[in-house]
Design goal:
mainly alpha
C-alpha cells in the first residue's frame, strides 16, 4: 500500500523537529551549565590543546585522560577555539549536529528510503546522540563524516570520500577502522587514502617548528599506549568489558587475537558485500560493520560512543518496518535503541554502578549478528537472481538458435 504525500510530509516534519529539539535541549543545557559554572564538556581539552600547540607546549599529560587524540585534532578544532568560550561551546555542537543530520539525509537516500526512513534514522540517531552532543564529543562529527564518505563511495566519488575520511581521522583516530576497510574493499581509494593521510601528517609541520611536531608525534604514540592500557584495565562499554562484568577474563594476548579475528571477519564481510551486492548496500554494510567493530573492540568505548551506531540502528529499523514488514525485526530494533539509550538506568538495577556498562555492548553483539544475517540473506538473493537471469539468457539463446535452424 502506497503512502500518501500528506503522511510522508508529516514524517519529514517530525524528523526535522527531532533534530531541532536535540539542538534546543543541548543549547539550553550548555547555557545553563556555563551560567552555573558547572560545565560538563570535553571541549576544554580541545581548546587547551589548541593553545598548547600554538605556544609550542606539550599536548599530552601521559595519564590516559584529557586530550587523547592526534596532534592534528588541535588544528582541526582551532576555528572553534578562536571564538569566545560560550560561542565556541555552542557553535561546535551546532556544527556537529548539523553534519550528523546531513549524513542521515544521505543515508536515507543511499538506502532508497523515503521520509519514513528519514524519520526512523533521525529518531534513533537523535536519542543516541544526546549524551555525546551534551558533552561536545567529536564522535558526533566523525560519525557524520564517515556516513557521508560511505555515500560517496557508493557513487565512486573516490576523492571526496578520501577527503572526508582523512578529515574524520584528523578529528579522531577511530576513523582508521573504516579507512583500512575502505582501502582494501575499494582498491581505487588505496593510493588516494595514502595521499590523504600523508597530507594530514604533513600539515602540522606548516604550523609549528619541525622538532616540536616530531616530539608531539612521539608523545602521541606514548599517550595512545597509556590510553590503551587504561582501557584494558578498566571497565568500558565494549565486548571485553561486558565479559568482565560476567566474571569472564581474557589475558591481553587472547584479546588481541580475538580483535584480529573480528577484524578479518569484518573485512571479509565488507569485501563479500562489495563483490555481490549493489554499491549502495555495500557502502551501508561497510559503515555498519566498521561501527559495530569499533563499539565492541575499541578498548575505550564509552556509553556516549554509541552515538556512532545510532544511524545503523535507525536504518535497520526502517528497513524492517517499511521494506521487510517484519514485526519481529521491528520490535528487536526498537528494543535495541531503547536498551542502548537506557543502558545505565537499567544495568544499575542489577549491577554495581561501575559495572553498569554491559547492556549496550550486549545489544550491539545482537545487532551485529542481525547484520550478518541480513547480509547472508541478501547475498543468497543476489546469487539466486543472477543464476536465474543466466538461466533465462541461456534458454533464450537456445530458443533463438532453434528458430534460426
Amino acid at each position: 500500500m502506497s503512502v500518501d504525500t500528506f503522511s510522508l510530509s508529516r514524517y519529514r516534519h517530525s524528523s526535522w523537529w527531532s533534530w531541532l529539539a536535540l539542538t534546543a535541549v543541548v543549547t539550553f543545557t550548555v547555557v545553563v551549565s556555563i551560567v552555573k559554572g558547572q560545565e560538563r564538556s570535553v571541549t576544554p581539552a580541545y581548546q587547551s590543546a589548541v593553545v598548547h600547540w600554538f605556544a609550542g607546549e606539550p599536548l599530552y599529560n601521559m595519564e590516559g585522560h584529557g586530550f587523547l587524540y592526534l596532534p592534528q585534532a588541535a588544528l582541526t578544532f582551532a576555528p572553534w577555539a578562536m571564538l569566545p568560550h560560550s560561542a565556541s561551546e555552542l557553535v561546535w555542537r551546532w556544527c556537529m549536529i548539523g553534519v550528523l543530520a546531513a549524513s542521515c539525509i544521505r543515508l536515507t537516500r543511499l538506502l532508497g528510503g523515503d521520509d519514513r526512513w528519514f524519520f526512523a534514522i533521525s529518531a534513533s540517531s537523535v536519542v543516541l546522540a544526546w549524551g555525546c552532543a551534551r558533552n561536545g564529543q567529536s564522535t558526533l562529527l566523525i560519525t557524520g563524516l564517515m556516513i557521508l564518505a560511505a555515500a560517496d563511495l557508493s557513487e565512486a566519488r573516490w576523492w571526496r570520500a578520501t577527503i572526508l575520511l582523512s578529515l574524520a581521522f584528523a578529528f579522531k583516530p577511530l576513523a582508521i577502522v573504516m579507512i583500512l576497510l575502505t582501502a582494501v574493499v575499494y582498491p581505487q581509494t588505496s593510493w588516494r587514502l595514502a595521499i590523504g593521510l600523508l597530507f594530514v601528517a604533513v600539515v602540522p609541520f606548516l604550523t609549528q617548528r619541525p622538532d616540536y611536531v616530531i616530539s608531539q608525534y612521539r608523545a602521541c604514540v606514548q599517550n595512545l599506549e597509556i590510553t590503551f592500557e587504561v582501557g584494558e584495565t578498566g571497565l568500558w562499554a565494549q565486548f571485553f568489558g561486558m565479559l568482565q562484568v560476567a566474571g569472564i577474563e581474557f589475558p591481553s594476548p587472547v584479546r588481541t587475537a580475538i580483535r584480529l579475528l573480528a577484524a578479518a571477519t569484518t573485512l571479509f564481510a565488507c569485501w563479500k558485500a562489495s563483490r555481490i551486492l549493489a554499491p549502495e548496500r555495500s557502502a551501508f554494510y561497510l559503515f555498519s560493520f566498521a561501527s559495530c567493530y569499533l563499539m565492541l573492540f575499541n578498548s575505550r568505548t564509552e556509553g556516549n560512543t554509541y552515538t556512532m551506531i545510532g544511524p545503523v540502528y535507525g536504518a535497520l529499523l526502517a528497513e524492517a518496518t517499511f521494506r521487510l514488514k517484519n514485526r519481529t525485526s521491528t520490535a528487536w530494533m526498537i528494543a535495541a535503541v531503547v536498551l542502548t539509550v537506557a543502558n545505565y538506568e537499567l544495568a544499575v538495577l542489577v549491577s554495581p554502578r561501575p559495572k553498569a556498562i554491559w547492556i549496550s555492548p550486549l545489544v550491539c553483539v545482537g545487532v551485529t549478528g542481525y547484520l550478518v544475517f541480513r547480509l547472508i540473506e541478501e547475498i543468497k538473493a543476489a546469487v539466486s537472481e543472477k543464476k536465474s537471469a543466466e538461466k533465462h539468457a541461456f534458454e533464450n539463446r537456445i530458443h533463438d538458435q532453434s528458430v534460426a535452424a
